[in-house]
Amino acid sequence: MDSKDKRNFEKGEHVETRNAIIKTAHDLFMEYGYRSVSTRQIADLCGLTQPALYHHFTNKKELYIEVIRETIFKTQTAVQRILKRPQSLRERLQQYAYYMMLNHHEDLNQMFHDIEHQLDAASQAQIYQWWMNGYLMPVVAVFEEAAKEGKLQNQYRFGATPIDAAHFLLSLIKSSMEPSKFLKDSSKSRQEAAEEKSHMIVDVLLYGLS
Amino acid sequence: MDSKDKRNFEKGEHVETRNAIIKTAHDLFMEYGYRSVSTRQIADLCGLTQPALYHHFTNKKELYIEVIRETIFKTQTAVQRILKRPQSLRERLQQYAYYMMLNHHEDLNQMFHDIEHQLDAASQAQIYQWWMNGYLMPVVAVFEEAAKEGKLQNQYRFGATPIDAAHFLLSLIKSSMEPSKFLKDSSKSRQEAAEEKSHMIVDVLLYGLS
DNA sequence: CCTACCGATCGGTAGG
DNA sequence: CCTACCGATCGGTAGG
């Protein structure tokens, strides 16, 4: 190969290394939290020395922010596709909940806590902007559409806006993703459990318990 | 004072110091998380040197477990009193949600994450036992009672048990306690906001959005 | 309850 | 991308 091909090849390796770092950092940060994960842990799992990380990212916080950015944008793409399907409100919300349960783990609570306590105000504002566009607004739009079609007539009786509704749904999804320490139900696969839970959550939210 | 009085006095001071440590540690642990809080921070805020903490607690983890134990037991007492009042299901749940919103902050998610990742399995099991008795079962009992009286007829249609219902309620309460980064509503006091949110949550849970 | 101090680990830098 | 290393901070101990 000539020098041009060699450069491209090396650049490709550089990008692959960067992606490996982001994936490893994602898994560790989301499970253990920002402070509990050391740059040496990340580097070791990628087969690198710790100072090598600083060739790809200026510091630990920049790496963390990049992890969050990629996570939010990937989710946004998938979620918008699901919520635009020509199906009923109930079916779309169920599929949305199912997707979130399978593809996110218990990471959202941890992520928000870290953002609030480990990042500066400017980074927080930027991430909340990404979060609103990627996670919240697609769901809000679905509830607004349903409200216009008169399918959420109780909205004003309870004082619950479409934004509240989206928060409720995300809250129920988050709690369903927590490792259920109380009822270990190992008889079902992850997919089966997520499908069952997604149906239950949406039905409770739409129709109530009583 | 004779020597006996002096001993009692000194023992009283010892207890007061211990309580001050627990209160300070509670506030710091719940806000920033177990790993992010150093024993020196706790000691400084109590007017002590860091090694002095080890006169009251064998190590950082023992202190953390004691913080959790006292928190759960105090909540258990208050919650049981509220849920035994001779009022409707809706009213009792509203008052329960209101109490939790005012007296707990955003600490529960942080607490559970720390328990899972920073403590050994034996400590986890002990704390989950406390949690079930103190937090979950009183709410489960209320839903079971309502189910027997036929007030939750949709229970089997959705597959939602009283335990699920209690988890849903706690989940909605937890998310309502999160600092709402999205809708800063500083026009209302904490009490007013908690009252409004507790009503909204219980109504959505009982009657649904549509 | 203090002073003095320990080994371990952290995020990050220098220099190649 | 490596070796070598820095100052800061951590939880915990010794000894009084």
Automatic annotation (TrEMBL), chains A, B:
All copies of domain HTH tetR-type, residue ranges: 15-75
Entry keyword Repressor: yes
Molecular function via GO: DNA binding
Keywords, sorted A to Z: DNA-binding, Repressor
DNA-binding region per UniProt: 38-57
Listed InterPro entries: DNA-bd_HTH_TetR-type_CS, Homeodomain-like_sf, HTH-type_Tx_Regulator, HTH_TetR
Domain of life: Bacteria
Record flagged with keyword Repressor: yes
Protein's name in the database: TetR family transcriptional regulator
Species: Falsibacillus pallidus
